[in-house]
Amino acid sequence: MGFLDDLGKNLNNVASVASEAASKVADEANKRLEDRSRQAEEERAVNFEQEAKIRELAKNVVVTTGDIRQDYDIIGPVYFQISNKGIFSSKFSKLAKKYEDEVKHLKDNNNSVAGEIGRILLLGEFSVGEDNFDQAFYIATEELKRKALFLGGDAVVHMRQDIDMDTDHFSFFYLQMYGTAVKIRK
Which residue, 122, 169, 117, is CA-closest to 141? Predict the structure, then answer.
C-alpha cells in the first residue's frame, strides 16, 4: 500500500502543478487579449481623429464639372467607382454607413448633397433604388475630394460620371466618377 499511497500523492502533486500552470497560461492569455483590445481601441480612436481631420480638409476641396477661374497646376486624374450590385455592394454598404450622418443631415435640411461644390443634387423621396444612387453620387464626390486631397490637390476639375442602371430585376447601378486633380496657385 505504501507504493500506491506514494503514487496517489505524486499524481495529486502533478495535478496541482498542472492546474497552476494552466491558470498561469490562462491569465497570460487574458492579459494579452486585454492588451490587444486596448491597442485596437487606441487605434480606433486615432483612426477616428485622422478621419475627422481628413473630412474637415476634404470640405475645402472643390469639385466641378467645368473649369475654375483660378490658375492651377494639374496633378493628374482621380477616379472612383461604386455599385450596389454584386461584390461591389459591400463597398457601397461600408461607405454608405461611413457617410450616413452627413447624408441624413443633408436630407433632413433639404440641402444639396454636394455642399460647397454647387448644389448638384437634391435628396428627396424617389423610386426604389434611386435613393441608393443619390447616396452613391454623394459618396463618389466625397471620395474624389479625398483622392485629390491625398495627391496634394485643392480641386477636381472637369468631373464626369458614368452610370449604368439595371432596372430589369431591381434598381442596381454601377457608378464611375472621374476628373482631374489640380493644385490652385496661391
Answer: 117
Domain limits, the chain: 1-58, 63-184
CA-based nearest residue to 140, from 109, 178, 104, 108? 178
Inter-CA distances, 40 with 33, 46, 49, 51, 134, Å: 10, 10, 14, 16, 33
CATH of domain 63-184: 3.30.110.70
Which pLDDT band, with edges at 50, 70 and 90, does 170 fall under? low
* Nearest alpha-carbon partner for 184 in 79, 75, 77, 64: 75
Residue 121 CA to residue 117 CA, distance in Å, equals 10
Inform me whether the pLDDT recorded for 57 exceeds 70: yes
Q: How do residues 24-49 score in pLDDT, each as one tens digit?
A: 888 888 888 888 888 888 887 777 78
Cell numbers representing residue 134 in the block: 443619390
Q: Which of 43, 51, 49 is nearest to 99 (CA)?
A: 51
Distance, first Cα to last Cα, the chain:
98
Report helix, strand or coil for 166. strand
